Amino acid sequence: MDDVLSRLRVVEAEALARLQEAVSAAHIDALEREVLGNASEIAAARRGLKDLPDEKRREVGRGINEIVGRLGGRFAERRTQVAAAEEAERLRRERLDITLPGRGALPGAAHLVMQVLEEVTDIFVALGYTVADGPEVETAFYNFDALNTPPTHPARLESDTLYVEHGPDPEGVLLRTQTSPVQARYMEQHPPPVYIVSPGRVFRRDTMDATHTPVFHQIEGLAVDANVTFADLKGTLAHFAREFFGPEQQVRFLPHFFPFTEPSAEMHTTCFACGGSGCRVCGGGGWIELLGCGMVDPNVFEAVGYDPTAVSGFAFGVGLDRLAMIRYGVPELRYFFDPDLRVLEQFR
User: Fold this and answer.
1) CATH code for the structural domain at 112-347
2) What is the mean pLDDT of residues 46-60?
3) Rounded to two decimals, what is the model's pTM?
């Protein structure tokens, strides 16, 4: 029996030596199962106690319990040491130097075109207009037919318009070339009076250069009510020009043609840079072409279910990218689409 206890003391000594080398809780658990588990020599010695005489059983059992008690205490002590070391290492890795200044996020800003979009929208909202929105992928009916654009109009050619393959008619769905379809959709769903502006992206098959991009931004307006006249159109747009460019702005209207308005006009405004005396911005003429406008054609009213004998209205459309170029002296439209922070950071 002394041989059993002697062997177990050797097992204890070897276990304690290996325990000092354990550097993780997993290693300690594995060693404890090996030394004290059901398959260990200590467990086998306990199972053999039943074969010993009573006096020897008590002596050997007491010796085994002492060994198990010592090992259990050392295992618990080593677990505490390893846990403390792991915690200290984690704190060292995650340590923050609170004496350093904080690294704050750089403040962002809206893109220059978006700034202009919001400013122009606010001008018309202050006049009582409502902001209306619509899909960028449109049908030919809303983009052309409802706006009095005949099938033979060159804007309907694939050289000008980006069509989408959808359904049996490849020319039935397209990327909108203007935000005017929003006006047709809104009138279909709302009875007059109507006072709306519709800002958003539009798409045309243009080659990228200094003044053209296949994607650009537009805002269009529509006013429909009883007895709306061209004088109302002129007064509204003159107010817009003075709010956007300054109170000294003058405007002029030159006859033009648009399928969805009759009569139609181009609105020019005096150059904000030179006040009309002539400079590089306006090309020396003193005037800047700003937007297209006109009185809504009766055919447009009929297409959306309005009675053209009971109401009248005007519509206008202006390129927001062009407004931003004119006001801020940006020489190329491409700068608005290039991710060049040297350009964008100038307009925070």
Assistant:
1) 3.30.930.10
2) 80
3) 0.66
